[in-house]
TrEMBL record:
Keyword tRNA processing: yes
PANTHER family, per the entry: RIBONUCLEASE P PROTEIN COMPONENT
Natural source organism: Kutzneria buriramensis
Coiled-coil residue windows: none
Molecular function terms from GO: 3'-tRNA processing endoribonuclease activity; ribonuclease P activity; tRNA binding
GO CC list: ribonuclease P complex
Protein name per its UniProtKB record: Ribonuclease P protein component
Gene3D superfamilies xref list: 3.30.230.10
EC number: 3.1.26.5
Alphabetical keyword list: Endonuclease, Hydrolase, Nuclease, RNA-binding, tRNA processing
Top-level lineage group: Bacteria
InterPro entries in alphabetical order: Ribosomal_Su5_D2-typ_SF, Ribsml_uS5_D2-typ_fold_subgr, RNase_P
Length: 73
């Protein structure tokens, strides 16, 4: 699992906060992914103001679109 959080998201503090939230959200979903899955998540600027719950919903939607999971955690 990799995360791309560019300067467009915010300053260093904001980028690290977004990275930590994404890492936590993905850790909860790793068991749902097929073995050997490699993934890179790119955070867009709105991630800076999103709540952890919103990030989780967005991740769930992306995983469903990719056909990697059937539901939310």
């Amino acid at each position: 699992m990799g995360f791309v959080v560019s300067k467009a998201v915010g300053n260093s503090v904001v980028r690290h906060r977004v990275s930590r939230r994404l890492r936590h959200q993905m850790a909860e979903r790793l068991g749902q992914l097929p073995a050997g899955t490699a993934m890179v998540v790119r955070a867009l600027a709105p991630a800076a103001t999103a709540t952890s719950a919103e990030l989780g919903r967005d991740l769930d939607a992306a995983l469903r679109r990719l056909g990697l999971t059937g539901g939310a955690s």
